[in-house]
Structure formats: structure tokens, C-alpha cells
Protein 1
Amino acid sequence: MPPTDLLPFLTSRRDDLVALLRTLVEHESPSKDAAALNALADRLTDLLRQSGASSVDRVPNPDGGDHLLARFDFGHTGPDAPKPALLMAHFDTVWPMGTLATMPFRIEDGRIHGPGTFDMKGGLTLLLSALTALRDLNLTPPRPVEFLLTSDEEIGSPSSRTLIEATARKAAYALVPEPPLPGGGLKTARKGVGRYTLSVAGIPAHSGIEPEKGRSALLELAHHIIAIHAIADPAAGTTLTVGRAEGGGAVNVVPASASAEIDVRVSTLAEAERVDRALHALSPVLDGTSLALTGRLNRPPMERTAATASLFEKARAAAARSLGLELTEGSTGGGSDANFTSAIGLPTLDGLGPLGSGAHAVHEHIEMDSLPLRAALIATLMLSL
Ligand SMILES: [Zn+2]
């Protein structure tokens, strides 16, 4: 059966895709709720087996919800099996437990609303449905598939990062169905994300009796907030934002302490290193104050490497040939787990999720009719890449 039959098949199953998405959305899964995440991992284990998984391994996470690594052999076993394709999705959401009460799963004007529909239970639905469709249509991809499902992407992937990188090192390429660019474009470049905190110690003194003996930590910090923003190089894609600052205590005391939290976005590792050096080079302006800097680059930039560009070109040709779909690509300032796979050199296509908008916002939704087409796209890529 040629791959062009995927779309009619998945379109005929659209209601099953919607029902699967409903199951996932109505199982709330905040990043820090281990019990809820583990219960969803149980449910996902069943769903993976129903989709034809050859094995499902549970990777314990003592600090939160467990992760899952499923393998779909598609007949490729033994030492001569080709390198697997890596499919990657996270099943945590940013929404706290109980959000469903005010933001229930609902379908209105062709849109499916609810917490996590767009980021990224819609994408998870596509991966499960694409794998099921390949099995039901007896279509055999040229590679086995490793499907990694993680529970902590929305808090920076502290416990899954090593697992992601180890799995990526063995793979041929990665597909990630995070939300696409507006209009459905894939994401082949993402900025790297860093978080730093600058703490300032001053010298407290009475502001009326002996202000000359004090050194204001807030005044010192003010100098540095301006200096930090000056490190940015927007033309190179580098921005620094002091998103939060605090300091001082009583209004009649020269403030003894202050601090600022800094969000850093970079397009290249070279820029990440330049910013890191510049932040560490900050030194006190006022005599008698001192500075302490903590933090680092959390996610390396996903650079549009030659290997990713060539993977996209193959994907574009396959989508045009099999689905008549004109795939586009672009970049975004937001990070995802694709940053990790890409940074270790694995060609990676992200943004394969359903059309929609409102990730992390109350109007979060997906376009219902995009589910079959995007699932067919992912299945087509598994058959072609
Ligand atoms: Zn996401």
C-alpha cells in the first residue's frame, strides 16, 4: 500500500484521534506532580503497547514522574538493524492540577481547547496515531523507531536530559511534534536559553544619620542592569532580559542586598560563551560592594546544521510527493528538548505538532482537522527518512 493511503486512512479515524487526545488532556499532568505523571505513564504504557510497541521501558525518576522509552522494531532486530529514528514528546504540562475545572476539554468551531492540547498532548496523539496507522496498514519503515516520552520538559528537563542525549547518540535523526510555527512550519532552529542570578552585597547604614557609611546594593545593581542589557547583540540573535529584580528592606536604610534574574537567549554556542564571559566579568562599580553570579546556559541553541537542513530537504520532498503538502521551516526564540538532540549533532525536525495556538495561555487550542494530516505527515517521514 503506497504511503499516499495514509491520509484517507487517518482521516477516516479522525474521531479516534480526538478521543485519544481527550484521554490525554483529561489526565492532568503538571511537571511537579509525580503521582499524576506516574499514573499517566501507566496509561501511556498501555497505549504504546496497543500501538504495536515491541517493548516499553520505564525509566525511574526519583525527583518527579518516570520517563518511558518504547521501541518499535518493525522487523529490524539484531546487530545489523539500521540506526533507529527517535521520536520525542513530553507528557507534562505547565497547567496546575484542577485547571480542567475552568478550562475543560471542549470542541468549538473546529477547535479543540484544553490544557496541553497544543503543548504537547496534540503532538503525542499524532505520534501514537502515526505508529498505529503504520501497523494497521502493514507499512514498514526502513528503520526501527525509539519513542522517548519524558515528564519534565516544561521545567527544563533536569532529570531527562542525560536520557535524551544518550538515546539521541544512537539514533539516525529525531522528530519532535512540539507546536509548529504559525501556519504549520517546522522548527529547524531554536535559540539557546540561559538563566542567571546576579546578587549584590552592599553595606547597610541609617539613611539619615550616617548615609556616607553605607553602600547601596540597589544603586550598584542599577549600574549592572544597564550593563547586562548592553551585552545583548540583537543582530546576532542574542538578547538579555533582567526579568526580575529585588532589593532593600526598610525605606530609611541604605540597602544591604539586591539581586536580579537574567534571561539569556542565543542563536549560537559562540554567543552563549561570549555572554557567559561578559556576565562573569562584571565587577563592582561602588567601593565596598561585592557581586556573586550563579546560573548557566540551560539549553544549548538548536543551530540549523547542514545535516538538519538536508533532513528537512528530504522531508519537504516526501511531504510534497506523498501528501501534496508544501512544508516550510523557520526558527523560534523558545527552547525545547530538540535543543539537546541537535546540540549533540543529531539532525532534528521540530514543530511537527498539529496547527493551533496559545501554548501556555488560557486560549490554548488546536485545529481539529489538522490532526489526520499532521499524523499522516509524521508517518510519511518515518517511511521516507
Ligand atoms: Zn512543549
Protein 2
Amino acid sequence: METPKTLLEAITFFSDYENCRQFMISVRWADGVVRCPYCDATKLTYLEKARVYRCYGAHSKQKFSLKVGTIFEDSAIGLEKWLPAAWLISNCKNGISSYELARALGVTQKSAWHMLHRLREAMTDETGKVGGNGPVECDETFVGGKVKNMHKSKRPKGVSLHGGGGKAIVMGMLERGGRIKAKVISGRTKQQLNPVMSENVEAGSHIITDELTTYGFLETPYNREVINHALEYVNGHIHTNGVENFWSCLKRSLGGTYIAVEPFHLDAYVSEQVFRYNNRKDADDFTRFSACLMGIQGKRLTYKALTQRPGVV
Ligand SMILES: [Zn+2]
């Protein structure tokens, strides 16, 4: 399969449904054999006109499309639009707004908003820990509007109204020369930092932090070096410049492209930026797009779940 290299080539390539179908098969099944999502059977008939497969197994839903079992399931929007949308969100450095996507694809802004959130779900990578191969810079940043000014019913649960003027807090853990992990956290006490650190950073890792004393009380053992920002910004290798660079990328995309991010959606925007950061090196646009598509399986995000999302962790 000739793979597209630019946005223009991707739009042309995926305007042919057969290319969408072949691409989806290559992403979903390593051996290239389509399997029934209900019974795993491979004895199937492809009904070209309806763009569905027919299974002969003894279960009720006998016909299924390639969207079943992915974040695209139940979407009326065709793969000819979904795949260019995935290309755009994977490769636009500062993200893409639902208004821009709506115009580019000819869908409503509401549909585009839902599409982008489903794609962010695909980009979310909860696996693995950082710190196995290098020191980890740990830092927090305050993001967004003032939660304390929001009406009580709209406030996300668990967000501390103390410190940072009630803004949401994001914690970043960057392995030098490797991946970053970032999470929205509800506060900076040791009870709030401990679980995030132990879930995301290998025990025994060498960590570099600012002077926030809470890090001194971490339960998981880490070798810690501290940078005192009041006195110095760079002390040899003891600095958090890498993670601070990530914060400026995140804030640029939040401030420029996503003008009004609800605090309870912040995690999704953070995941999107983490995805682009972790796929920035040695990856061309097609590789980044494919990495996004690798995350579409086994995930669902309905509009109802999206709009009723509970508070941040
Ligand atoms: Zn079946």
C-alpha cells in the first residue's frame, strides 16, 4: 500500500473508501485478517455496497462495519472524514479547534467537537512508567480559568480551591531523552502526589524537582535532586527545562487553539499534547497518524459520557 505523506495526499488517499478499508484492516489486525467483533470468526463475506461484513456465527448482529469495536463505533461520519481528522489532530503542533475541523470536513461544529474528543481518547496512553533509562524531571503547572469563580454546580469535583487561585494543576514527569507523562491532579499534598508518582515513575528512579517540600515525603523511594528557582535556574544537569518546555507547548495550544477548555476536559487536552510530544522525534506525519490510529480499539466515548464527564482525578 502506497502511504500518504502530506495532508493533501492523505485527503486524496482516504477519499477512496477502498483505501480507508485497507488501512483500517492493517491497523486493526496484524495478520490482515478481519475478525467478527462478536464471535471472532474469520469466515466472513464482505458486502461491498453496504460496506459491511457478514458473519455466519450464531449471534444476533450478523453484519458489522470496520468501525465496530473502535472509537468510531456508532458514528454516522464516514471513515473518509474520520481518517483525515485523525491526520490533522496528530500532526498540527498546536492542535485543531472544532471550528477549524468543522470547516475543513464539512460537518457541524458539534460533530467536530465530539470527533476530536474521541480522537483524544485514542491518543491517551496510560501504559508504562517513565524513569527506567534516565533522570525524570517532575514539575507542576497551573492551567486555566479560576475555578473559584465558577458556579458551584459547574466546578469539577476534587479541584482544590487553595493554591494557584483555584486553577487546575497539571503534573508532568519527563524522562530525559524519553517520554513524558502528565496528569491533572487535585492538589499538591503528599497524599495527592504519591499515587500519581508511583503509578507513573519507576521506583528507584533519579528525580529532579523544584523545592516543593512535598516531594520529600514521597512513599516510593526515589533519588531526588532539587533545583531552587529562587536562586538558580540551571545547575549543571539539575534543571527542569525539559518539562517546562512541555508546559509552554501545552499552554500555547490551550491558549491559542482551545480558547475555552472546561476543567473537566483538561485531561483530554493534556493527553493530546503528551501524544504529540512523545511522537515528535524521528516520526513523520504518517507514522504519527498511524500511532494515533493504533489507539482506536477497545475504546468508546459516547456523547453522553463526554458531556457528563465527572470531575478530574
Ligand atoms: Zn460472528
